[in-house]
Amino acid sequence: MENKGDFQYPHTFVLLGASGDLAKKKIYPTIWYLYRDNLLPKNTKFVGYARTKQTVAEVREKSKKYMKVRPGEEDKFESFWEANDYVAGSYDKRIDYEKLNQVIFKYEKGPVANRIFYLAVPPTVFEDVTVNIRNACVSIKGFTRVIIEKPFGRDDESSEKLSNHLASLFKEEQIYRIDHYLGKEMVQNLMTIRFANQIFSPSWNRENIASVLISFKEPFGTEGRGGYFDSFGIVRDVMQNHLLQILSLVAMEKPVSLHPNDIRDEKVKVLRHIKPIERKDLLIGQYVGNPDGQGDEKLGYLEDPTVPKDSVTPTYAIAVIWINNSRWQGVPFILRCGKALNERKAEVRVQYKDVPGDIFNGHTKRNELVIRVQPGEALYLKMMSKSPGMKFDLMETELDLTYSMRYREADVPDAYERLISDVFTGTQMHFVRNDELKEAWRIFTPVLKELEEQHVKPLPYVYGSRGPPEADAKLAECDFKYSGSYKWQKPTLS
Ligand code: BG6
Question: Which residues pair with 213 in a beta bridge?
Answer without folding.
Answer: 334, 349
